[in-house]
Amino acid sequence: MSAVVRLAARGAWANRGRSVLTVLAVVLSVGFMSAVLMLSGGLSSQADSGVAAAYAKVSLVVHGEKILSNPPGEFITQSGAPVSAAALSAVKAVPGVTEAEGLRSGYAVLEQSDGKVVGNPGTGGGVGQSWLGSSPLNPYRLVSGQGPTSDGQVALDQAAATSAGVSVGQKLTLVTSTGRHQVTVVGIVDYGSAAGPFDTTAVLLPAEQAQSLLGISDVYDQILVSAPQSAMSAVATAVSPFNAQVQSGATWVAAENSAIDTTLSFERDFLYGFALVALAAGGTLISNTFTVTIAQRTRELALARALGATTRQVLAAVLAEAAAVGLVASVVGAAVGVGAAALIRAVFSLLHLTLFDTHAVVSISSLALPAAIGVAVTLLAALMPALRASRAAPIAALREQQVDESGRSRGRAVTGVVLLILGAVGMAAGVSGKSAGLSVLGLAGLMFGVVIAGPLLIAALARAVAGLMRRLAGPPGLLSGRALARNPRRSAATAGVLMIGVMLVSFMATVVASMNAATGSSAATGNEAQYVVSTAAPWQWQVSEDVISRVSSTPGVTSAAALYAAPVLDQGSMIMAGTVDPAQFSSVWNFGWSSGSLASLTGDQIAVQNTALQGRHVGDSITLTMADGTRQTVRIGAVYTNGFVGFDAPTYLLPPDLFHAHATQPGAELLLVDAPHSSLSQISAAVGGDQSVNVQTAAAWIGQGNTKVAEVANLFYALDALAVFIAFVGVTNTMALAVRERRRELGILRAVGTLPQQLGRMISVEAAVLAAYGTVVGVVLGALGTWAMVKSSTSSDLSRFQLPAGQLGLIAGAAIVVAVALTAIPARIARRSPVLQAITTE
To answer: How far out from the chain centre does Cα 277 lie?
Structure first.
């Protein structure tokens, strides 16, 4: 065993230069995984949302039907239909009920003097709730100060107060759907056992003023009840006339925590997915390094066999060397994870990504687990090269050079071709049958087919472009093509990592372009206004009547038409419904009516966007569950083509009287403004410093596309950047190893008159071809996958395929340029190859 240890130690030390990039790959992969676990720990800590402690004294919860579902990775606190105030009186009259309190909720945020919003309003834009005083049913507990009891007073959750530096006595601006109000913070509160409610900021309002401040009717978001569980049936009977439901406090808490956990799971899975991509990229690089390193040491290991070393000893020595490299790199990577977590958070903040607003939690598992995985991946990556080395015949010690033939097998060719055919068939079947699942399977088949057949494709590519490479770079170009074909498995593995990274970028870029094309083109056609005032938070409709009035009275404004929106349920699925004033809206929007018109919106007749018909026709009846929980049967009276932008854009238009009769929140989603082209500054001035709305030109509003999709896309790009960077490291490593492997060849070329710059150009051309192959194939697969998804989708958000040719071309070009730039060091080594030392036999 001591001989094995000495052989491993000698090998690790002798090959320390070759291991630098391998160590870097392991450090990056392990560091990213460690950072993911730390951030995941932060997300998990948020799962202790305080709900259990907040509702500890609540026996029963009366609430309306859930209308607005939580989008993936997002949590919206107010998502149920409101409960009539009459229901509270009915609950109090039930025998056994000792106490019942109604909790009012609505949109509310606080702004500092510089206009900055206090705390984290979250997806829903911030929640204002009525202060329930000293009642044991109050979910909030005073930390300092006093509760708000009179006009002009508010309390703020501790998490928001701490992050914004707000203290008791500070004067702020309260922004609600009814406008802007000057208030004083009189208290700081906790939410149960948490410093604040999950994914939002809570502003507590005086119970008497909450209704008027929030602009809601005489309704409650919840009714909190103290009563024995035996009273649940009687309470349910009492509130059934008001379309309300009853749950035990424990059931309510479990449902809330489940929704929070689902939100966090989306975020954790997103991070884990990219951690695995980075790990796979690192593993490929490690495998490449050991494959080449061991191939170059075949004579050394075969000589050890000739001198009496057993197969097991050689295998153990190589694996011990890999374990040493993996252990050192993994320990460093785990430590680097702390900085990586801070860097990821900084990138998220820079890109304004609110999905992952969390802190890093350093734990033993977040350090030890990634380190253990890093060692394991390094050993697995080295296993096949180690097995080949251990089986090296002693006679191999007499050979001058080993040629890698592992990528030229007939089985590999057949498997790759079969997967490519199956992938193409699956994708075609998915498109023709409108099956997104089959399209995804088809894309997976194409990807794996390209990966498995990669060595053959690389060899064929090298032969195909040999003439072009010679014309572009002279004899070094021809040699570059032959070098790529000499070790196609290694070249294909390197390009494969780059292909996957670029494919993900291409896929997301094309998805974003297609979604924006689907919504933006119809919005661009429909819009006839010059300016748009829209909500800043995606799931709140806070273009208040005050804002509408101020903009309408701005000099130069000839028309200001509001689009109102609210969620409804159609056969259990959430649909966004809206309404407009026909007289005002007809001058600012061309709906592109295929049937009916705005005049059709009377009585129970509605208009439906053509992409949301789902096989229905004019005259068909639909039963909707409205935002207030009541059910309403309506008929399709008109169909329009030009819809609005965003996930929360309405696709059903209701008659104004019908919509407003069941609306639960005041405020519009959009305000389309007709005014001279020089009026932007005046409109912005009319809005003032109100951070709850955005003022844009119509072109800018349409051009921004779906802001939530753009946010996810930015996150996608930020995380995928690491995998692409590791792929670039892999290209550099491959070129560096190729220079070492071909030292004698380079020396001979120098000896016969090849100029140093020609040798450097040869390495650069190889890198360019390798990067071009991985990049172009990745771009094609990503775009093709998006095309299949769009053609097989029934979603109105993906009704049109748009190829962002300029963006994809820029991605491909940048990838090739970066890959060539990173091979400057290997190219320099090639240029400086010593002639006499290179052509001598070891």
So the answer is: 14
Distance CA 605, CA 638 (A): 8
Render pLDDT for 654-663 as a digit per residue (tens, 0 to 9).
999 999 988 8
What DSSP line would sit under 342-385, residue for residue?
HHHHHHHHHTT--TT-------HHHHHHHHHHHHHHHHHHHHHH
The conformation of residue 116, written as its DSSP 8-state character, comes to P
> 536: closest CA among 692, 397, 682?
692
Tell me the pairing of strands 83-84 and 652-653.
unpaired
| Per-residue pLDDT tens over the stretch 673-708 | 988 877 788 888 888 766 778 888 888 887 776 666
The whole-angstrom distance between residue 289's C-alpha and the CA centroid of its chain comes to 32
Scanning 117-248, the segments in alpha helix (DSSP H) are 158-164, 207-214, 232-239
Residues 100, 226 contacting (CB under 8 angstroms)? yes
The model's pTM is 0.72
Report helix angle 311-350 to 2-14, nearest 10: 50
Let me know if 450 is exposed, middle or buried by CB neighbors in 10 A (0-12, 13-18, 19+): buried
Distance CA 306, CA 302 (A): 6
* Strands 621-625 vs 531-535: parallel, antiparallel or unpaired: unpaired
Beta strands (DSSP E) in 497-604 are 531-535, 559-570, 573-580, 593-595
Contacts of 551 by beta carbon, 8 Å cutoff, 6+ apart: 533, 557, 560, 671, 673, 683, 686, 687
Residue closest to 548 by CA, chosen among 656, 702, 668: 668
Rounded to whole angstroms, the Cα distance separating 291 from 296 reads 9
pLDDT tens-place string over residues 178-198: 888 999 999 999 998 888 888
Average pLDDT, the chain: 79
